[in-house]
Design a protein that fits this description.
Layout: H1 2-25, H2 28-33, H3 44-67, H4 73-94, H5 98-120
């Protein structure tokens, strides 16, 4: 089970680091063109804040458990990612973006699995 959880944590970290870096370096129009349509209408500062939050969450999904320093942050980060995906899926559904909804649901399931699995081993 530990290997499955680490794979889930790695997938979440990769997805959110990628998304966060994109939000830090690209303007809104480029993000929307790349498929990150959830940022449409937000200010550049808000988009950057979301990007920084995603990167910090990606660090929180791996580093605390890896180092053993405040490991409770790992399942909390996973739970936070699950909440984000719960909020993102209806937005992408309304925008008629089935691929993005599928990604949201997949990341939601992985996040819940990691949150549950890591919470069991605290």
């Amino acid at each position: 089970m530990n290997i499955i959880l680490w794979i889930g944590q790695a997938l979440l970290a990769i997805a959110f680091i990628y998304s966060g870096i994109n939000k830090l370096i690209f303007p809104e129009q480029k993000l929307v063109a790349k498929g990150q349509t959830g940022v449409a209408g937000y200010s550049p500062a808000t988009i950057r804040f979301i990007g920084i939050s995603e990167i910090l969450g990606a660090i929180g999904i791996v580093l605390p458990w890896l180092t053993g320093i405040v490991p409770v942050l790992t399942p909390l980060a996973a739970l936070a990612f699950a909440v984000i995906m719960l909020l993102a899926a209806p937005i992408h559904y309304r925008l008629r973006e089935p691929q993005n909804v599928a990604v949201n649901i997949s990341l939601l399931i992985i996040s819940l699995l990691v949150a549950w699995g890591r919470w069991q081993h605290l």
